[in-house]
Amino acid sequence: MKMLDRRTGWMLAAVAMAQSGVAAAEAAKVKAAVSEILPVSMAEPGAIPLYPQVRGKKAKAAEAENWTVVRGEGRSVRNVTVPTLTPFLPEAGKANGAAVVVAPGGGFMALSMDHEGYKVARQLADRGIAAFVLKYRLIPTPADQQEANRAIIARLGAAFRGGPDVPKLEKPEATEDAITALRMVRADAAKWGVDPARVGMIGFSAGAITALNTVLQAPADQRPAFFGYVYGPQTAVAVPADAPPMFDAIAMDDQLFKTMGFPIVEAWHKAKRKVEIHGYQKGYHGFGLGRPGTTTTLLMDEFHAWLAMQGFLGSQTKK
């Protein structure tokens, strides 16, 4: 367990409590490894609001966000009500015309903006792919960090425990934000130097769920052209007849979302849609760009190679 990142730690603690019946009071003992609280002005440079805002509304809403630096992960945010998109563009002459909207995870109650957002986007940009980090709307949590820890663990524990009256880990607005982000990138494709037909997504954990929901719920012409599904639930879904190619990556020892034989991959395959699976021997949940000492460190190389195989990395933007 020493290898696990801090965000993964509280997620697994919630699951353990749900499975073992640990009293709610025990949740108070779990503390986030927050080393610094950031002002919003320092946390999100270059971000673009997804929706037109009434004057003063964005600033007021942003003030309610809780930005922190988590040891081992970097910037994280809670209580997002004003979604944004932060572009990371390739160097001049390096762009290949593809674009990816990056959706970080965090149980729909936080977003791991560095670990599963900005760092991912920089690696994509280094490979000539325009990347856009999506800060989507979240389930509210208390402003106080320790109270938030207790609320997050309680909700996660209840969700994994199951039953008819427990809160679900979902946020429909996150899917709406993802669809809007794809629409925004395509509308400004010329500005960003990308091909509207080659705009996809990659999501991690809750971000993977958001990417999948976007595929399942968006009108066909607004879906991502492709999507990376990184340590998302492996349960089967009803696959649209024209579903985009899926790149599924998960560690075989993922404690949150068991592989279960990869039913979601089987569903994609049976629907005769393009799909690739990377089941890493080790890595746990939340490995991000890769956990040192494991083959999860190959994630971005493999995702890039897969995009090339699909024909999404043309040397020039299509007219």
UniProtKB/TrEMBL annotation:
Protein name as it appears in the record: Acetyl esterase/lipase
Q: Does the keyword Hydrolase apply?
A: yes
Give GO MF terms, alphabetically.
hydrolase activity
Check the record and name the SUPFAM superfamilies matching this protein.
Answer: alpha/beta-Hydrolases (SSF53474)
Report domain Alpha/beta hydrolase fold-3 positions.
167-231
Q: What Pfam families does the database record attribute to this sequence?
A: Abhydrolase_3 (PF07859)
Q: Does the keyword rRNA-binding apply?
A: no
Signal peptide annotation:
1-27
Which keywords fit this entry according to its UniProt record?
Hydrolase, Signal
